[in-house]
Request: fold
Amino acid sequence: MAKKKINHISKNSEKFLEKYLNTASPTGFESEGQKVWLDYIKPYIDSHIVDTYGSVVGVINPEAKYKVVIEAHADEISWFVHYITEKGFIYLRRNGGSDHQIAPSKRVNIHTDKGMVKAVFGWPAIHTRRGGVKEESPKTDNIFLDCGCGSKKEVEALGIHVGCVVTYEDEFMILNKSNYVGRALDNRMGGFMIAEVARLLHENKVKLPFGLYITNAVQEEIGLRGAQMIAERIKPDIAIVTDVCHDTNTPMIKKIVEGDLSSGKGPVLTYGPAVQNNLLKFIIDQAKKNKIDFQRLAASRSTGTDTDAFAYSNMGVASALISLPLRYMHTTVEMCSKDDVNSVIELIYQTLFSLKKDQTFNYLK
Reply:
């Protein structure tokens, strides 16, 4: 199948993406990122919902009987301040699946009521790690922050206390004109892509016969919690979830375990118990019809994404997962292909456009 070359990303869209990715949105503290996202989509929606824990939903055609969700999650992995030593070093607990092995020498922001405090992950110099002695690897109980203070009292005077959240300061960049790189592409790229779908629907004056709920959910990284809550509130008929999956064509990844997926080869469609087969077939048909290359992935008991939360809510919601191949997940240099981003946007857009033809969704049964 000849790949369809698509470019939906405008200069203004890319400016939004950079601002959105550079705004910290750690699990449980997503509000600043959510404000950026909502401000961007407001011109393209009729109304919006903000729930108790901060999931945000832009709604198009809210009076319609049938409801379709397109969804991403808004939170990024981070750390919590857990213990401050008398000498002013700070030990941490994970908030989500933060990778302890990448931490040493990273720069971070500690979020306090007094504002942002800069710090670094310290690590013993190579000169002090003597030959012949087995070197210690970074672990959650030996990595620590240094914010340039000499005592616990000095640290606390900066506003730092147990429970303060810590995020990496690494920011967005474009690599070789064709790849987006930064922290938190998992999964604010999803939030970006569904926002672009809303923009395209508005600019192309597409009138949907169903309600569209563009959903940016919180707290996915600690167990799909935001999706669980918002699914009960919306009670959709269909949920199309977008998240990231692994590009398995980088070194040190076993394809026999992780599958064969690659950046630049299109969206990834998942097979698994939580994925409603007729909806998946419908999406595949749209990909073929519109000459959008796609890849396939088999899940086991669960997809590990918000798809599971929607699928098993409200006595069962027809759900599907469209994933973006990502390199170096849960690091500060997550990387994805700009072509893949465009293709995910196009596939969701074409799927919604085709759903117009059968607003009763009988084909799902």
Summary: The radius of gyration is 21 Å. The longest strand covers residues 238-246.
